[in-house]
């Protein structure tokens, strides 16, 4: 699924669509990619020289939540209701490609709970239950 298809599935546009492509999607799992560039708007004010540019943890979590939202049937709106057990393992910097992996735990009464992991080059970046 490319970015144009994502725009039809998720209610986000620039600068808040934090997924570039879905590479795998089944009933209970979604794998999505985000290529992080130096031109991302959040790098303009998050840290300034001499500090390195780091992707804010809230933006990583938002990308994780958007990936989890794709576990819902098409046409259903996903709204982030909570984050549990969020852990951050390493920073994300311009040039990194994040792989988001979401796995559905349960769906009941219109609510979805999923475990989502973010990694760069196979190394864990973040994880949470959303």
Itemize the secondary structure elements and their pairings.
Elements: H1 3-9, E1 21-25, E2 29-35, H2 57-69, E3 84-88, E4 97-108, E5 111-120, E6 123-129
Antiparallel strand pairs: 1-2, 2-4, 3-6, 4-5, 5-6
Describe this structure in words.
The chain has 130 residues and is of the alpha+beta class. It has one domain (3-129): Hotdog Thioesterase (Thiol Ester Dehydrase, Chain A). It is built from two helices and six strands. The radius of gyration is 14 Å and the shape is globular. The two termini are 22 Å apart.
Outline:
This protein is α+β, with helices and mostly antiparallel strands. The chain contains 2 helices and 6 strands, in the order αββαββββ.
């Amino acid at each position: 699924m490319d970015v144009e298809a994502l725009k039809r599935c998720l209610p986000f546009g620039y600068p808040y669509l934090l997924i570039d492509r879905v590479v795998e999607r089944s009933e209970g799992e979604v794998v999505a990619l985000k290529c992080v560039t130096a031109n991302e708007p959040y790098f303009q004010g998050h840290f300034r020289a001499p500090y390195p540019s780091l992707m804010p943890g809230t933006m990583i979590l938002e990308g994780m939540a958007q990936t989890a939202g794709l576990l819902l049937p098409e046409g259903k709106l996903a709204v982030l209701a909570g984050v549990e057990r969020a852990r951050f393992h390493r920073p994300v910097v311009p040039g990194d490609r994040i792989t988001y992996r979401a796995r559905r735990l349960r769906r009941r009464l219109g609510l979805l709970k999923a475990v989502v992991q973010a990694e760069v080059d196979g190394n864990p970046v973040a994880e949470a239950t959303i």
